[in-house]
Amino acid sequence: MNSEQRSWFRSKSGLVLLGFLAIAAFFLWEEHRAHLLGILPYALLLPCPLMHLFHGGHGGHGNEREHDNGGTRK
User: Fold this and answer.
1) Is the distance from CB of 66 to CB of 59 less than 8 angstroms?
2) SS3 of 7, please?
3) Cβ atoms of 66 and 72 closer than 8 Å
4) For residue 22, is pLDDT > 90?
5) pTM score, two decimals?
6) CA dihedral 6, 9, 11, 12 (to 10 degrees)
7) How far apart are CA 21 and CA 17, in angstroms?
8) pLDDT of residue 3 exceeding 50
9) Residue 74 in 3-state DSSP?
């Protein structure tokens, strides 16, 4: 072995762990792909109401005037 410190991922146990994680990720993807891809349209539409909830609607459309305070912003 060199005098330099080898990376843990390049050791035998690190390579075995990486192989195990790759196989586990493959089987997780294969078993749950239908569920994950089935929820994708809802996951794409979910940010719309959340933006309205947390950012106060459609701000920044050029009409910054408030109707109840005489045209000045609060």
Assistant:
1) no
2) coil
3) yes
4) yes
5) 0.47
6) 180
7) 6
8) no
9) coil
Angle at CA 38, nearest 5°, toward 33 and 39? 110
Give the C-alpha distances (Å, rounded to integers) separating 51 from 36, 58, 63, 70, 74.
23, 9, 19, 27, 21
55-64 pLDDT, tens digit per residue, is: 776 665 555 5
**Three-class HEC string of 9-73:** HHCHHHHHHHHHHHHHHHHHHHHHHHHHHHHHHHHHHCHHHHHHHHHCCCCCCCCCCCCCCCCCC
* Neighbouring C-beta atoms of residue 14, cutoff 10 Å: 13
How far does CA 20 lie from the centroid of its chain?
24
What is the rounded average pLDDT of the residues 7-23? 91
Q: Which residues of 44-72 are buried (b: 16+ CB within 10 A; e: fewer)?
A: eeeeeeeeeeeeeeeeeeeeeeeeeeeee
